[in-house]
Amino acid sequence: MTRFSFSLTATDGAARTGVISTPRGDIRTPAFMPVGTAATVKAMMPDSVRATGADILLGNTYHLMLRPGAERIARLGGLHKFMNWDRPILTDSGGFQVMSLAELRKLTEKGVTFRSHIDGSKHELTPERSMEIQKLLGSDIVMCFDECPALPADDKRVAESMRLSMRWAQRSRDAFGDRPGHALFGIMQGGVTEHLRAESAEALTVIGFDGYAVGGLAVGEGQEAMFGVLDYAPAMLPTDKPRYLMGVGKPDDIVGAVKRGIDMMDCVLPSRSGRTGQAWTRRGQVNIKNARHADDPRPLDEDCSCPTCQGYSRAYLHHVFRAQEMISGMLLTWHNLHYYQEIMQGMRDAIAQGRFADWEVDFHRQREMGDIEKL
Ligand SMILES: [Zn+2]
């Protein structure tokens, strides 16, 4: 049986490319993980998600534990079978979403009690329960249960929160046990304070994980502050394990993170934007709602090989968005996910060939040109 493993095949500056091997298939890194919050990447069939080039999906523990319930998914054969996706799945721990979505939260050393944002029912999440839920779901990559303060926060609050997360990381490790073929990732905290990041990295490395996430970023600190942390944080983590930046981001955030040594990312942005009429292209963002597209027979991006750009005009995309047709979200989501995966493939190739810096210059140059001229 294939065990979980990671091999680096090339580095270029701090940027890395490699392969994570799991019993459910390989994950090429740097990897972008589309988000399948409620056991679906919204508006996409699983085969279509795979066709965009995704090797792995992310599922949300918080949403799935509340509805339809982790025990129910386990009885139905696990999350992969339930949602008809047989490749790797990473699940978050639920911690971040409890903090951002749930009501009447109460945080103690033991864990968090809260009320569901769906029906007000009372629940508890602890490191032990989070490990149990992620096991019931059948997740391939399990995340430690952690806590993360919204930024800005003072150093004292960030330090207390980080140390609680490190105690929870040990409890997560103990509860996860030995599960060949499955991985447990630790999550580094410490806000934007370098010595707290170093303390967190040291604590996690002592416990020992299959991979390490840089947590507590993309929570309102801005790109400059995020890159500031990424200038030093990835190098504090073991070189031979995957590094995951959670909840990032826009195309230029992703490129900047890979440049600084990140191997994996996830974000709702390409799918969420698709449902609100926003497309991401090599030339930047396109708002398909704008009247300028109403008579435009050209595709979103003439050089894009996705089914949306191969078969549909901007005029059609504008029309179906205005008419609130479901195909609008489907077509824009497909294009956006395809574009994100194209960025990842471009970076993997560039790193392998030692030309990441040139690739990055070209990436920014095309974006700065802005959208194609109006007809
Ligand atoms: Zn396209």
Describe the 3D structure:
The active site is at residues 92, 266. This is Queuine tRNA-ribosyltransferase. InterPro entries: ArchSynthase1/Queuine_TRR, TGT, TGT-like_sf, tRNA_ribo_trans-like. Substrate binds at residues 92-96, 146, 189, 216. Its EC number is 2.4.2.29. The protein starts with a strand and ends in a 6-residue tail after the last helix. It has helices at residues 46-51, 61-66, 70-75, 79-83, 95-101, 127-137, 155-176, 194-207, 223-230, 251-259, 269-275, 307-311, 314-322, 326-352, 356-369, and strands at 5-12, 15-22, 25-29, 31-34, 57-59, 89-91, 103-107, 112-115, 122-125, 141-143, 183-188, 211-214, 243-245, 264-267, 278-281, 284-287. Helix content is 42%, strand content 19%. Strand 10 (141-143), helix 7 (155-176) and strand 11 form a beta-alpha-beta unit. The chain is globular. It is α/β, with parallel strands linked by helices. The protein has 15 helices and 16 strands. Helix 11 packs antiparallel against helix 14. It has an eight-stranded parallel sheet. The chain folds into two domains: 5-267, Alpha-Beta Barrel (TIM Barrel); 274-368, no CATH class. Zinc ion binds next to helix 12 and helix 14.
